[in-house]
Specification:
single chain, mainly alpha, Serine Threonine Protein Phosphatase 5, Tetratricopeptide repeat, 3-stranded antiparallel β-sheet, disordered C terminus, Nmd2/UPF2, RNA binding
């Protein structure tokens, strides 16, 4: 037990002076020396109570709730202002042990809820140390993480979402709240408040009594790293004022301590060096930001002056932006100056207007997106591909197809006044436009584009200011042809058609036609941005010889752009802005629009980089940014503007949509250099194996590929592993060739059974892993794997129970109790995730047709019932998934009625469970296993031809056995070859079947004869006499009273009637009589007909079986390959 805290230690702790800067009379160095003894005493005290039992005051301790509540309230409200003696006295009179959590919470709240008054950090730290002595180790173990979390959770970026009016107030409150927290944590780090063994992994190797100081270093570093706007400079200044000497050290004093050991350091020299380097790095970064901000401020001031000269006033938004920027620069300058004073560093030299004017710099290129050698950083050329280059550069020369007179070129004759105007490349816009006050109605006002613009109420002054006076109107013939050209232009979608229309227009060239063309090209519907490249090419072809068309079109876009800038807040004009900006970009790429025009548009949008102008900049860079950056005339200025955009993007707040647009625009005009995909180096053998499976394998080459794979060096583990990996990466194989890979697996299992078993195990593992991970990018792989699994079953590599287990796992895995229920989602199978349905349908489409009889049919019916319930548990199905499910059900069970609601499916499941006896199910499983074992070595018979209801010894036809027995006759190596096939027994089959048929047929006839005899004896009533042939009867038969016939006679029975009595008389007719001969002939004929009928019945049955087998084989053959049975 440690004795009570020494009074001397308490007195020295209370005697701690205020930090420098508060009184301003005691230097920081003297203050550190004055507090050194008190801090070392508290440090020793804290470390002792980490190791020993808590301190117990003498005398009785009060355990009442009222006293504890009073103490907690004082800690919550006055821990930073009350006297340490008063609080310690109250603490020593209470038990405290039951209220540790409440005391911790009150202490944290008392430190963080400071109102900005004078805070006695030393008294607060002494109270905390005393509470640690009373409540060790629970108190500090709970308090320190809470205080560290307060600093870690404070992020100045979070306040960016608040309005600008409240942001400054909120920032001031945050700084005031965090100041005492930072000071308390720093002081606790000096007095050893952290336990020696609590350094953790981050502090591995650190001296035990410096663990807390390392935590202080991390929190200070966090304040710097998470502060791009330098809002935490006041907190860092507070830290330096109070603890610069303790944590950063003093170079002269540190050197003196090393030489003569005059006094000790609370923080190690290595950690002091880390703190100093951290603050110096932060100071340098803030200095650069200050220089950059000052430069921007001067540039903005210059722009404001230019705007004032042009417009006579400075707009309010521009003025507000300037004032905001000025305030931010002044605040940052004050912070940097304070840091420089406390760190004994030289503050940066700020640029002035005179220095900028002297250097001629307009934009400071710090942090530029381009290197000094900008050409090296711009990857690729102006155009993406050769087709795009031809579209924009290979412009038709009208002089090659149109006579010079139509183009206004000089000839021997005097050119007309009209042609002279055309020839002048310096034609001014004034010749095309009327005065702004003029209005004019034109006969072409009914053009579709013009009407659309007017109906949309855009009020575009560019269209209104056009001088539509055509002078001499066109005659009816040329006017009609011109209208036909304009009507065909919206349908032109390739270079050839555009060039042809340009030639047609050139033949109609006149001043009136050109004005109609300008108006038509300038009034594109707002929703037809797809026409812009083709219209721009049309204008570029004509502009060479008719420059007034390009000038007029640019003038329309300029007026439209000015109007849209005035209407920036009108959201309905978004599509018009998009059309206007993209039209500029297309004309720039055809060099119809001059470079300075496009750069001026970009500059105007960047000056007010908010709202719609953000979209304008992004659309302009997407349209022609690549061209501007790589064109020699505009490269330098375009780079500077792109840099300006990137800097504003980093400093201003944009929503997520605008950020994505700007990023896409930047990387589209200046795509980053990408490292080429590294090809995996394969050995020649590995490349050959991959080539066989992925390229050579087709339906006709299956046997050849199989022989080559069998000839591989199967004793080499590396080769076997690569073959195994190639087979398992089934998604690398063409989807149509997956059945062929399954065929190879079947064939290889005869020679390498472990290999085929490993393939199956890996496929099942991939299916299970896919359900566990459920990664979207692996969906195509999972589809291919499931298809492969189904094809393996078709070749009997997989047994039926495994298939059904996989089907059930698709709808049950990941759900509680294995049952999906509506409204109860799963983390790996959400209600809006429909991919397992696709997997189930893929497996059922592959091998579900095989389960059409016997017990397998019943199992599939049960699964389909539960599967429909699983589908109904999902959200509304997409159309493609719904069609997939319906197609699968219709293929497998055409007569099944799909369930509409989950309740219907649930009732069907209940009925299915009730109606299914357990014993019957067990018997069916045993029968299925017996049938599976009875398959034997019957070759590659398809699983779909399996008949569960046939007897186990049912033979196989000769043709089937002959076609399935495959002998590797070309293999000249001495190796054991297993012949798979069955011996034909057609003759035995025919004889046995014929004997069975004759036996059954004779028995049927005999039974029928006996019945007829009984009926005849019971009621021998006939209307007329009929001669009957008597059968040979047994002598003991009581019903016969006739004697046995002789060898030379044939017995006939004569039925006679006398009155109401009928009698039968036996007559012996000689064999050579006509009656006997005819009767004998009739008997022989009847016997032949009977034999013929028997043969026809047997042949018909055999033909039906063959047709059924052929139909099944044909259906399998249509699915890319014949199916084959493996050994059961």
């Amino acid at each position: 037990m440690v004795s009570a805290p020494a009074a001397a230690a308490a007195d020295s702790a209370l005697a701690l002076n205020e930090p420098a800067g508060a009184s301003g009379t005691t230097p920081i160095k003297d203050e550190f020396i004055a507090k050194l003894a008190a801090r070392e005493a508290l440090k020793e005290k804290n470390q002792e109570y980490w190791e020993d039992d808590p301190y117990k005051p003498k005398g009785p301790l009060d355990a009442s709730l009222k006293k504890h509540t009073t103490l907690i309230n004082k800690l919550r409200s006055a821990i930073l202002t009350s006297s340490a003696d008063t609080l310690i006295k109250e603490i020593d009179g209470l038990t405290l042990t039951k209220y540790v959590a409440e005391i911790v919470a009150a202490t944290v709240e008392g430190i963080t809820n400071s109102k900005g008054g004078k805070a006695d950090i030393d008294s607060a730290v002494e109270v905390i140390s005393h509470l640690h002595a009373r409540l060790a180790p629970e108190f500090l173990s709970s308090l320190l993480p809470e205080l560290l979390n307060v600093l870690a959770a404070s992020n100045p970026i979070a306040s960016a979402a608040t309005p600008a009016t409240d942001r400054d107030k909120e920032e001031k409150e945050r700084v005031v709240r965090l100041r005492p927290v930072l000071r308390v944590i720093a002081e606790l780090g000096l007095v050893g408040a952290w336990e020696k063994a609590r350094g953790g992994k981050a502090n591995k190797g650190v001296v035990s009594d410096q663990v807390g100081q390392e935590h202080v270093f991390e929190r200070v570093k966090g304040l710097m790293a998470g502060d791009p706007t330098y809002s935490n400079i006041p907190l860092l200044v507070t830290f330096l004022k109070s603890y610069r000497r303790a944590y950063l050290g003093d170079p002269a004093t540190s050197h003196e301590a090393e030489t003569n050991g005059s006094h000790s350091e609370l923080v190690s020299l290595d950690l002091q060096s880390k703190f100093r380097h951290l603050f110096e790095t932060y100071f340098n970064t803030a200095s650069k930001a200050l220089v950059k901000g000052q430069t921007k401020l001067l540039e903005q001031d210059k722009k404001n002056y230019e705007a004032y000269i042009k417009a006579g006033e400075i707009f309010e938004d521009r003025q507000n932006a300037y004032e905001k920027m000025t305030k931010a620069v002044e605040k940052l300058q004050a912070g940097v100056q304070s840091l420089a004073d406390l760190l004994n560093l030289t503050p940066p030299k700020l640029p002035t207007a005179a220095s900028l004017a002297k250097s001629g710099l307009q934009i400071v290129n710090t942090g530029s997106a381009f290197d000094k050698d900008g050409e090296e950083t711009l990857s690729g050329g102006i155009w993406d591909d050769d087709e795009e280059r031809k579209f924009y550069e290979d412009i038709l020369d009208l002089a090659d197809d149109v006579p010079p007179t139509f183009l206004g070129l000089k000839t021997n004759e005097e050119p007309s006044v009209e042609d002279t105007a055309i020839q002048s490349p310096e034609a001014k816009p004034d010749s095309v436009y009327s005065e702004p006050g003029e209005t004019h109605q034109d006969a072409d006002d009914g053009q579709p584009g013009s009407v659309a613009e007017k109906e949309q109420g855009l009020g575009l002054e560019g269209v209104k200011k056009l001088n539509l006076d055509e002078g001499d109107p066109l005659q009816s013939g040329p006017a009609a042809r011109l209208s036909a050209v304009f009507a065909a232009l919206p349908e032109a979608n390739n270079r050839t058609v555009i060039d042809k229309l340009a030639v047609d227009f050139a033949y109609l060239n006149s001043k009136a036609a050109r004005k109609r063309c300008i108006k038509f090209l300038g009034t594109i519907p707002r929703n037809r941005t797809d026409l812009l490249p083709h219209y721009a090419r049309f204008a570029a072809i004509l502009n060479k010889y008719m420059p007034d068309i390009g000038i007029g079109l640019i003038a329309i876009l300029d007026e439209e752009f000015k109007y849209l800038q005035r209407k920036r807040l009108v959201s309905e004009l978004e599509s018009v802005r998009l059309k206007n900006i993209r039209y500029y970009g297309e004309l720039a790429k055809f060099k119809v629009a001059q470079p300075h025009t496009i750069l001026h548009v970009l500059k105007v949008c960047l000056e007010d980089f908010t709202g719609p102008n953000v979209d304008n900049v992004a659309n302009l860079l997407e349209s022609c940014g690549r061209f501007l950056l790589r064109n020699e005339e505009t490269s330098e200025r375009a780079k500077a503007m792109v840099d300006l955009m990137r800097r504003k993007q980093n400093t201003q707040h944009f929503d997520a949509r605008q950020k994505v647009m700007l990023e896409n625009a930047y990387y589209q005009c200046n795509p980053p250099e990408r490292v080429a995909i590294t090809q995996i180096e394969l050995t020649p053998m590995q490349s050959f194996i991959q080539h066989l499976i992925q390229d050579v394998l087709v339906k006709k080459t299956v046997d050849k590929v199989l022989k080559l794979i069998r000839k591989m060096h199967w004793e080499d583990d590396a080769i076997v592993d690569f073959i195994f990996r190639t087979f398992n990466e089934i998604w690398e194989v063409k989807f149509g060739n997956i059945p062929l890979v399954a065929m190879l697996v079947y064939d290889l299992q005869k020679y390498h059974p472990d290999f085929s078993l490993g393939i199956l195990d890996q496929v099942l593992e991939d299916i299970r892993a896919g359900m566990e991970d459920n990664i979207f990018k692996h969906n195509q792989r999972r589809i291919s794997t499931m298809k492969f699994f189904g094809e393996l079953y078709m070749y009997r590599v997989v047994s039926t129970p495994v298939v059904f287990d996989t089907l059930w796992s698709l709808i049950a895995f990941g759900h509680p109790e294995g049952l999906p229920i509506p409204g109860r989602s799963s983390e790996i199978d959400a209600a809006d995730d429909f991919f397992r349905i696709r997997l189930a349908c893929t497996l059922l489409d592959t091998c579900g047709a095989c389960f059409d009889r016997g017990s397998n049919k019943k199992k599939l019916d049960q699964f389909l019932t539960v599967f429909q319930a699983y589908v109904l548990c999902k959200a509304e199905l997409p159309m493609d998934v719904e069609f997939m499910v319906s197609d699968t059900l219709e293929t497998l069970r055409p007569k099944m009625t799909p369930f509409k609601t989950f309740q219907e499916a649930a009732l069907a499941i209940d009925d299915m469970i009730v109606a299914e006896p357990v014993e019957e199910e067990a018997e069916e499983d045993e029968e299925e296993e017996d049938e599976t074992e009875s398959v034997g070595d019957n070759g590659r018979k398809h699983a779909g031809t399996e008949e569960d209801d046939q007897e186990e010894d049912e033979p196989v036809d000769d043709d089937e056995g002959a076609s399935d027995a495959r002998i590797d006759e070309s293999d000249d190596e001495d190796e054991e070859v297993r012949l798979i096939g069955s011996i034909s027994r057609r003759d035995e089959y025919d004889e046995e079947a014929e004997e069975d048929f004759s036996r059954e047929f004779a028995k049927m006839l005999a039974d029928t004869t006996e019945v007829r005899r009984d009926v005849r004896k019971a009621a021998p009533i006939f209307d007329q006499a009929v001669p009957l042939i008597r059968k040979a009867q047994h002598p003991a038969n009581d019903h016969s009273n006739a004697a046995a016939p002789s060898d030379k006679h044939m017995q006939f029975s004569l039925l006679a009637k006398k009155g109401n009595k009928q009698t039968v008389r036996t007559l012996d007719i000689p064999l050579d009589s006509a009656l006997a001969i005819n009767t004998r002939s009739q008997q022989l004929q009847n016997k032949q007909e009977q034999e013929q009928l028997k043969r026809l019945v047997l042949q018909n049955e055999r033909r039906l079986e063959q047709n059924e087998q052929a139909a099944m084989e044909q259906s399998i053959r249509n699915r890319f390959t014949p199916r084959r049975h493996a050994d059961g």
